[in-house]
Records
---
Amino acid sequence: MKKVLYGLKQAPRDWYSGIYMYMIKNGSCRSNIEPTLYTKVNEHGKILIVFLYVDDMIYTGDLELDEFKAVMVKEFEMTDLHLMKYFLGIELDKFEKGIFICKNKYARALLKIFRMEIANLSIHQLQQVPS
């Protein structure tokens, strides 16, 4: 009987090991400070940055992104979720002049947990509240 990879205790280790072997074999360097961060720079200065988090992968750069994505989908049976919109409580929006990062969704969730959705005290009002 075969066990599903996700059901095994060593699944995360196998996942990281497989990605590590692939990345190193294909010329990427693993960060000494963050072991789930890989970079690859070609002779023209173009870069590929790959970050792993649990069973998610984020990649960016200007070096062969479409080729990298195709190989990852094939080699590791991944699903391409396209442009990242939300990650670890952070919302991201890409615009022509850059990327906008905010935590509005996370803040709203916290307010809802503490039943404070309608709270709207300004700093001036907070300073006047007796201690």
---
Amino acid sequence: MSGENPFQPEHFAREDDARDDEFYSIPRLVAHIDDAAIAALSRYYARVLPPGGHVLDLMSSCISHLPDAPALDSVTGLGMNKIELDANKRLGERVVHDLNRDPRLPFSGARFDACLIAVSVQYLTHPIEVFAEIGRVLKPGAPCIVSFSNRCFWTKAVAIWRALDDEGHMKLVDLYFRATDLFEEPLCDDLSPSPGRTDPLFAVTARRRAVS
């Protein structure tokens, strides 16, 4: 199914379809997964992120879950709430932007060495367009790491996400990557630190295909 878009508009309907900038106007200075899951995600980032890289933290908030090593040259955060972004000390550049209103990323092509979407992918109403934009702003070979748990703002999650289980969520994100035809084979990982006792955690990672 690589390069094909198998989705219909109803797949991305939401129970609360009010403007997202209104919903996210109230800052939420909290972690959206527990400490064990945060530590697991940080360890995964440490294995995958390139040292000295320029990283895009997409749909960012007050926490980026980044490890202390490898050292990164820069982290750019794009999110919905300025107060949350300002509270995130790992960010060197902060951009307030609503991807559901405009999926285009306000960055030049091949700018970043990695992209992160942490516990937020379930809210995208135009995911194929956003993932295509991620492919545009990533350098060849750069990874995009999409992580998620089973927690979310239910009324803002899209219908297809609400209908699926954890395995289904991994397959869905895999399809998002494949539909752009811009990424290498996605890898799905269960990073759950202690199943049944802590928040589950999953990651789907794909690298930008080399430009032929």
---
Amino acid sequence: MFAYLPARGGSKRIPRKNIRPLGGKPLLAHVLDVLSAVRGLKGIAVSSEDPEIRALAGSRPEVVTLAPREARLSDDRTGFLELVCEDVPRFATHFADQELMFVTATAALVPATAFEAGIARFRANPRGLTLGVTEFQPSAVLALAGAPHAELKPLFPELYTLPTGELPRTFVDAGCFYFMDLRLTTGIRRFLDLTPVQAVVLPPEVGIDLDTPEDWRRLEAAFQAKSAKSRSDR
């Protein structure tokens, strides 16, 4: 199994997100530090079209960058599955391996133990998808949908009146990591088409999907809290 990190330079909502400093160190560097300690990986790949990002990643002996990512696969419209189908194969050829851990820079606070738990879960059933998730509290079945100034309706009216203790546990993709066998991705439209879907549950202060400036503020706060706890434990 090898790890693949997509790290383009043109992120819009959080400019230069992949190398934005977190605690004085580029976001991507945090992820690479952890992946370097993960047992069970054949190698680490970073894919980018950006010279600065490529230089940062390529300065580490454990990281493979190959050629710059194609421009057509480096814009806002390129999705994860498109990268898996059109960019990841060159790294799979390099490592001579079809088992993939797709990781994002969002995973900056994910510990090595969580990645290793994902590897173990994937090994238990390698025909499916294993991903990092966070849990909805108390449950997503209580969600209301609609326009707040018009009308809201429960998404799951048949479950909405259940006692809290009987509500099913529900989870959301944390956007941090995904395990899959590349040989099974032909013809799928989304990662979740790989079944069964298995998960590693991440704490909410770890599984932070970085899409907006508010997400970045949450990440900074979680990082500072983690750093303060680490200092106090010394």
---
Amino acid sequence: MALSQDDRQAILDLPLQLTTLPAHQDIVREGDRPTRCCALLDGFAAMFKVTAEGKRQITAFYIPGDIPDLQSLHLEVLDTSLGTLSRCKVGFIQHEALQELCDRHPRIANAMWRETLIDAAIFRDWTANIGRREAYGRIAHILCELIVRLQAVGLTQDHVCKIPITQNEFADATGLSSVHVNRVLQALRADGLIVLRGNTLQVPDWEKLKKAGDFDPTYLHLQRKKAA
């Protein structure tokens, strides 16, 4: 989840190594021992695990303003991988610079701690989503989450936003096949809950989509105006 605007700016004032990465490229891999964190400035990314059989489970989506791998500041070895879903602009921040910032500004350290707690809340909600909702509700729930988070950082207008996530990626995030995801998206369209044109998502009936996904944004702990 994204830090507040002030906190994000304080971090972005640190020395950043800016780079643009293509879609579908690993940023860090499970087993890495990174010396820097990644601030996502533009584009979409995902955290994921890969089984011994090569099957991928996406455990979180990330949007502009997020710092997905804050845990690497304190965990020596990564137990998960992070990769781009779309073309991304990222800023790498050395751990030493981040640690010094936290030491000098306890409020920033508290904000980062809060973000890791929110990440844990999202992981819990995703576990419930995959384990206890039917396919229709799983997809509706994730779409609701993305819309609320994108609105919180000013990237939606009237429940219209860009979501460069493929059906295969939604499948990896929900434990469904890509064919099943396609059927669910068609059903959501037929029910008048969503309109999809390429990467553009429009939600004609926000309340019905929330109901379909059993969506309550409390777990996101947003401090800004939100779609709900």
